[in-house]
Amino acid sequence: MDSFQTTFKSILSAVFIFLILRVSANGPLESMVIKGENQLACTSTNHGHSTYRGTYDLGDMEEDEAWSMVQRKGNQFIVDDQPFYVNGFNTYWLMVFAVDQSTRGKVTEVFQQANSVGLTVCRTWAFNDGQWRALQKSPSVYDEDVFQALDFVVSEAKKYKIRLILSLVNNWEAYGGKAQYVKWGQAAGLNVSSDDDFFSHPTLRSYYKAHIKTVLNRVNTITNATYKEDPTIFAWELMNEPRCTSDPSGDKLQSWIQEMAIYVKSMDPKHLVEIGLEGFYGPSTPNRYQFNPNTYAQQVGTDFIRNHQIIGVDFASVHIYADSWVSQTITDAHIQFIKSWMPAHIDDAEEVLGMPVLFGEFGVSTKDPGYNSSFRDTLISTVYKILLDSTKKGGSGAGGLLWQLFPDGTDYMDDGYAVVLSKSPSTSNLISLHSTRLMLFNSMCTWNCKWGCKKKHALEAFLFHDDL
Fold first, then answer.
1. Residue 340, SS3?
2. What is the mean pLDDT of the chain?
3. Signal peptide: which range, if any (predicted)?
4. H-helix or E-strand containing 272?
5. Closest CA to 434 of 395, 465, 393
6. pLDDT (0 to 100) of residue 445
7. Strand bridging mode 76-79 / 71-73
8. So which residues are the catalytic ones?
């Protein structure tokens, strides 16, 4: 039993005793049924998924259960018709590290560490186009060794009960991205020059669709599961941080998203699909420009509301980088921005889009002037508090993914945003506490037979106090 599960079991035991005493003193809690001395009515989120089991046997934490696909129901993620709230992380380089046996162990290590603090979702790259250790060496030509490395990542994630969001291409040049597709087009004699031609040229679109088809239909050489049938995969991401600055109207990117979302769904209707946006408001909602971090954000060809109204897109994606968008120097303005940026998107996801919103990247760089670990903890606490406030009322704030989790010995890969749990005990404790609260919230919701419990509950002080 890992340390997180041990902690959670201890907390549940303490909660059970507390509730028994409360019931004895004040009468039965509404909708609560006590099945026995060692059982607690709950929604189990053990093993990275939610499964209603009627009662939670405190001695049964390690039982291995079959996974079901994550689905969307209105503005919530669900598994087996029970809420699934995400506390997760990014580690983009897993596939590349898994290629070499000398570094493959780091993949296992990061999943072990994530599991130990209750993280249940990891976002990573299912692409590396035309560069060192390329997955796709040229259009539709793949390196089988690298593909088997991705197989290992998926298999290892399942072993540690972590679901994956797999991103299919990059907006940026790292790991190839749209620029590499344009280079391939030029080599084939196409009349393309701008990286943004990736979004509009029919041949480049066909290159990308072929990649989608190959990945979705891949049969894992370790588990024998086809990717598009594997519940280890939480969702497909169309692109990491798409931008199309050559067309500020957003029409070019809108057309691309429409075609690709439907294409993915036509081949894999079971998995969720998201775009990978940063969340900037665009021309369709000028009244929301006030929430953008700067005036440039409305000119990059993305449009949070319009883009997410496309058929085939299941949930909204937003990133949070105050140190890149507001100012590099650490200041309280970063926290104030988050307190404006996040609620605006949660409200829009709930009231306009009617879907969950996942904050797919958030973090702060240790390289920023004025940085200290206390500020990072404050930033993470702020994100978690806003998400918990949404969770408490059944809102669209479905979770967040920290950028990014690193194991020991990978400092040379650090972009400034790395969180190494062994070196960051206070941050590790914050993550673990948030994971525990989400688990207990699911249990609380089952007691009250609904999500977003409006009535006060005995656990509310533990779950939602301000000093997160």
1. helix
2. 87
3. 1-25
4. strand 272-274
5. 465
6. 60
7. antiparallel
8. 241, 361
Please identify which residue in the block is written with the tokens 């028994």: 20
Following CA atoms 334, 336, 342, 348 in sequence, which dihedral angle do they give, to the nearest 10 degrees?
-130
| Residue 233: its H or E element | strand 233-237
pLDDT in tens, 263-281: 999 999 999 999 999 999 9
Residue 288, phi then psi, degrees to nearest 5: -100, 0
Residues recorded for the chain: 468
Residue 401 CA to residue 394 CA, distance in Å, equals 19
What is the pTM for the complete model shown? 0.86
Report the run of H or E that residue 179 belongs to, with start and end.
helix 177-187
Alpha carbon separation from 35 to 5, 42, 82, 125, 425 (Å, rounded): 22, 11, 20, 45, 37
| Six-digit token string for 187 | 């080599």
* C-alpha R_g of the chain: 22
pLDDT in tens, 82-139: 899 999 999 999 999 999 999 999 999 999 999 999 999 999 999 999 989 999 999 9
Complete DSSP assignment for 22-49: HHHHH-PPTT-----TTEE--EE-GGGS
Burial 299-314 (b: 16+ CB within 10 A, else e): bbbbbbbbbbebebbb
Three-class SS state of 248 = coil
* Complete domains list, the chain, with CATH: 84-464 (3.20.20.80)
